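Job type: complex structure
Entries:
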Amino acid sequence: MASIRTTILLAIALLVACFGMAAHLGPEYLGWRGSRSRGDILNVVLGDSRRLFANQFFVKADEYYHSGYYPSMFDNRSAFQTAHIAADTGAVNSKNEGDEHGFLGPPRNWLDAFGRHFFPNRHTHLDEDSPDDLSGSEKVGEILPWLKLSADLDPDNVQTYTVTAYWLWSRMRNVAEANAVLHEGLRNCPRSYEILYEIGRLYQESYHDREGARNVWEQGVRYWLQLDPSITGGNRPIRELVADWITRPTNLAPAQSDDKLSMEQLSTHLAQLEENAGNLPRAIEWLEAAKKVSLTPEPLQDRINLLNSKLGQELNPLLKPLF
Amino acid sequence: MKNAIAVAGVVVKELYRRKDFYVLFIVTVLICLVMASVNIYDDAHIARYLKEISLLLIWISSLVIAITTTARQIPAERENRTLIPLLAKPLSRTELVAGKFLGCWLACGLTLLCFYVFFGALAASREHHWPLENYVQAALMHWCLLGIVVSMSLLGSLVFAAPSSNSTICAVVVTGILFVARHLDQVAVTRPEPFRTVAYIFYYALPHLEFYDLRDLIIHDWPPVEWKYVSLAGLYGAFYMAVFVIGACLVFRRKAVN
């Protein structure tokens, strides 16, 4: 029978071995892609199926924006096909049509009429105390927990970041958090021109950083152009890329055709930026680019004509002595 | 009536001796506190998500307590062989059923009181106001719904073979009513006969438990419902409670006690 001393020594040896093994395996386990200690609880529990729930929570945020007055799967949803919180940002093509105020229709029977006293039965928006009054803007923060959850569940969905940032920045005046959300989005979706567009707006309007805005918008245009696999030239100056693209036939790549609005927004904002900086030829170039993808090119052409005439007036005093 | 109240007193005592309520209450409190500690973009005034989660947990907990407590009442008396001695006393079968119903309903009322006080405190900690009238309405309507569920479960405990099957069936039926009952008429319109008629019969015959769900109004700070509608909903609920309790009495009268 082993003595007490031997037993204690064996126990110490085992303890040392265990400690050594843990110290050796711990860092490797943390670095392993399948490690559950790295992911959040939702990732561990739901895996990739969490993306299925992300849209549900995005819709939930829209439901909160309407203070619970929202159509169920049995009601007429034609006025709610695009979430209003996304449509209001102006960065999404809204597919909504019909009456958003009266999707319930007239009461169908006495039970339905009676039941309508017990749930939200009037169309309102969280930030509007009345249709023209946005004094309730601080209440709009109530939509944010669901947007955050939606972003956590589906980190590759660009719209969640842009919508969250829009409400944080434009209505809640929380610029720092909006900036953080957009940069988190950019980390998860590095080639997203929509996020770059929003970052540019934030730089220009909140930080008054024109150079920063120009850089991210130009990068956004580059990514949008590169949706067309035939457009290469990663290191070429953006002006050359855009000039080439404008001279091409109007056929767009399918991915570009699906998202002309982003290019139009980026180009018009860049045009405005250049115009404000007094760089009219570049402003005209950007407006030409915007005109190529715009559904309403006439106003853009009017603006180009206006800038051309301005440019002519500026150049006339310089050219007169030559002739 | 005195006998029924005595039976009800025993049922209430049973509830606070069992662990079910404490476990569910503590779990609800813990989950709510964890959710409250989440930092949402540095905004400490965001409260509605917390109210929604809290009310959802309260609803689940209260339904679990109501259904499981009621479902085991009479089967447990039978299993423990205490039913015959109980009925040997000057206590009719109707009084026993009425007492069991009353006891379970009162017990649910007590649990709701605890839950809603916690909910009110939680909401007030964020919103810094306490819309007492809304909370009282929500709790009363919730209690009324639990009365219907308790009476339904009591009837089920005399019809179905085991408490487990009764609990499962009641839970499925209650959940189904809460989610679908309001829209059954819309479903009926789109269906051919005879499904249409069947759907309409269900629509008008089933108790519309969704009337008692004022969660959306509470979460989104809507003004309180007019009291006349709350009273009418109470009468509507009382009718269904009476139907189920009378049904239970009739079934129990014909049932062998051993």
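Summary: The interface with chain B takes residues 64, 67-68, 72, 74-75, 108-109, 111-112, 114-115, 117-120, 138, 141-142, 144-146, 148, 168, 172, 174, 177, 181 of chain A (CB under 8 Å). Chain A has a mean pLDDT of 82.
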